[in-house]
């Protein structure tokens, strides 16, 4: 990708970060391993709706054999695959969305055709008016939002659960983050949401990032020199929420405090421009797991 094309698509990069005064810490092996079930759930998001509804998708499904699927949907083209179910071991509802598959052109166009826009007040009642998000991500999330909400409500009721975990990779990560905001506005106050994403692009503006930090529990895991997490560019008004974990070239997982932390141990400092990125890092491995069905 030429530098000019990168600027057109993603905006000229520059370093701007919200710091917290906290230190970067390295996760120990048990902390890294604790993400493994969610990584497999995320990878299963690439499987078609029939596979996830029957929970028959090879290694991704076998890694969480006691998972009980409740609903699934999407066609893997104009609508990303998604599924909802319950994990009795983790005692959480799981919501997963398909990421960007290079073999499907429509999701790629969704990623590239962007501008900041307000959220739909009918889906996000009471959301502050200064919050703006990527228009393509907003439209992709809206396509499945009512079905996902209904499936989550069914699962919560059936299993008496109170915790919902949303997962996704790439475009699926962006949809899951927006779903987290959406579900938090429609579920009972006793419900607890956590969001674990991989290769998350920037989804919204400063007000959006601040809202996520104040109201949600997000962990977004970035792998080495993956270019997607530094897109769209900060010069276009996009900002990452806090919660980054960056997998370094040494394979250490560094917890990076603040929004868009500029340390070279974190994605913004490690990959200051698209030209210094490596697209092959996008799919992993994440603790040995490559994304895909």
Number of helical stretches of at least 4 residues: 10
Q: Structural class, from secondary structure content?
A: alpha/beta
The helix content is: 25-40%
In the predicted model, the low-confidence regions spanning at least 5 consecutive residues are 1-19, 102-106
Structural account:
With about 290 residues, this protein is of the alpha/beta class. About 30% of the residues lie in helices and about 20% in strands. It contains ten helices and eleven strands. The chain has helices at about 5-10, 30-35, 35-45, 50-55, 60, 105-110, 135-160, 170-185, 205-215, 265-270; strands at about 25, 70-75, 80-85, 90-95, 115-120, 130-135, 165-170, 190-200, 220-225, 245, 255. The protein has a nine-stranded mixed β-sheet, sandwiched between helices. A two-stranded antiparallel ribbon has the order 5-6. Strand 10 and strand 11 form a beta hairpin. The longest helix is centred in the middle third of the chain and has 25 residues, at about 135-160. The protein is globular.
